[in-house]
Write a structure and sequence with these properties.
The chain has one domain: Lipoprotein localisation LolA/LolB/LppX (outer membrane lipoprotein receptor (LolB), chain A). The chain is built from four helices and 15 strands. The strands form two sheets. Strands 6-5-4-3-2-1-15-14-13-12-11-10-9 form a 13-stranded antiparallel β-sheet, with helices on one face. A two-stranded antiparallel sheet has the order 7-8. Strand 2 and strand 3 form a beta hairpin. The relative contact order is 0.18.
Length: about 250
Amino acid sequence: MMMKITSFMTGAVLGFGLLCSPAQSAPLSADEIVSRADEIRSPQLDYTVDVKVTSSKADKSANTANYEVLIKGKDKTIIKTLSPQLDRGRTLLMLGRDLWAFLPDVSKPIRISLQQRLIGEVANGDIARANFSGDYSASLLKTEQIGGKKHFVLELKAKSDEVTYDRVIYWVRADNYAPHKAEFYAISGRLIKTCSYESYKELAGKKRPSRLVLNDPIVKGQLSTIEYSNMKVEELPGKLFTKDYMKKIKY
């Protein structure tokens, strides 16, 4: 009799445990995968970073530009041009999806687009907006094996025609959400450029791609690289990110 009671109690406890055990985590949605990849690409806090852009064409010498970039949240950015000397003092201010250029010899700011080229294959938006999750709606197309690792292949569609690209095909590693590569398309459907995320290094407390290589799919040998260094998370006062403050920025 005691054995039957013990057996019944054991079964009851096990059954209760099965009912109350936490369910397996639901798979992430496509938008959540993109958000996780954004966290790898850049801190989701205020930060500063030094950016070096090198643009090269086949059989021609490379052009290099250096910038100091200040980012507050996901929609406020200041880009200070440090070199070349001819462009030194040129400052870009992004507020939301509005981008303004401040030139040393022009009294009023000039509104420009995120799609406009900054240098080589690099558009203003490639530097000014570091996050995809706020600008695009994502869907999962498929998965692929690359170098023995599973990758998500996502399609990102622009929520607004003001963003840098109309559509992006984005490869993200499945086990750690690290960006691998991307294809960028215009509204016409034309492939504008490809990008590979390379040279993962410790930046602001996390391994991030420190080098982006942008290739022109039509012009052979024409490419640009974006290199990130000296990334620091620090609180940046909101007053910096105003048109009035742009006149006070020192170089």
